[in-house]
Amino acid sequence: MPERGLLLDRDGTLTVEGGYLDDPADLVAVPGGREAVAAAAAEGWRIAVVTNQSAVARGLVSRERLDELHAHLAELFPAVEAIYDCPHHPDDGCDCRKPRPGMPRAAMADLGLDPAHTTMVGDHLTDCEAARAAGAAGILVSSGHGARHAADAEAAGFPVVADLPAAIDRVLAG
């Protein structure tokens, strides 16, 4: 059976949206998120986080502090196997910044995931676009910034659900 994967955006999807965070104590799991991620892992899904973090390029968060935030994230979500971040500015033109497919492709390659059996969940249309560009499925959550992207996501053919637990329920149900 091919490896099944979940790629999760961080802010507004996996954790409560809080702007440019630089204190690990401010990184808080969305309600029901820890249980939903654990349930997916228990069913054999491999899980990674893929997150744009331009706060580093903007000088708002140091690379070291971002690493501390992600260490805390790993404590909150022990089923997450890897965390990928794009620290670049939106104008840098890198391949890793969503909606480009660099991070999803890297995560799928590193974890041995089959794109046809991988779903990315995020609260921005760019999350879904990055998934599609990498050959995976995308689901938009209405949490975080998702509500303002819902109409565009639906028009582009992406499902829209309330939050991360609803997205994972949908994925697990097939």
What's the short version?
Helix content is 34%, strand content 21%.
Q: What features would you describe in this structure?
A:
By secondary structure, this protein is α/β, with parallel strands linked by helices. The protein has one domain: Rossmann fold, CATH 3.40.50. 34% of the residues lie in helices and 21% in strands. It is built from 6 helices and 6 strands. It has helices spanning 33-42, 63-76, 102-111, 125-133, 150-155, 164-173; strands spanning 3-8, 46-52, 80-86, 113-122, 137-141, 160-161. A 6-stranded parallel beta sheet has the order 3-2-1-4-5-6, sandwiched between helices. Helix 1 packs parallel to helix 6. The longest helix has 14 residues, at 63-76. The protein starts with a strand and ends with a helix. The model has no long low-confidence stretch (mean pLDDT 96).
Q: Low-confidence parts lasting 5 or more residues at pLDDT below 50?
A: none
**How do the strands line up in the largest sheet?**
3-2-1-4-5-6
- Determine the strand fraction and express it as a percent band: 15-25%
The CATH fourth-level homologous superfamily: HAD superfamily/HAD-like
Label the overall shape. Answer: globular
Number of helical regions: 6
Structural class: alpha/beta
CATH architecture: 3-Layer(aba) Sandwich
pLDDT averaged over residues: 96
Characterize the main sheet.
6 strands, parallel
CATH class group:
Alpha Beta
- Helix share bin: 25-40%
Kindly report the CATH topology.
Answer: Rossmann fold
Gap between N and C termini, in Å?
A: 15 Å
Q: What Rg is obtained from the alpha carbons, in whole angstroms?
A: 15 Å
Q: How many domain regions? A: 1
**Total E-strand runs:** 6
H/E element sequence: EHEHEHEHEHEH
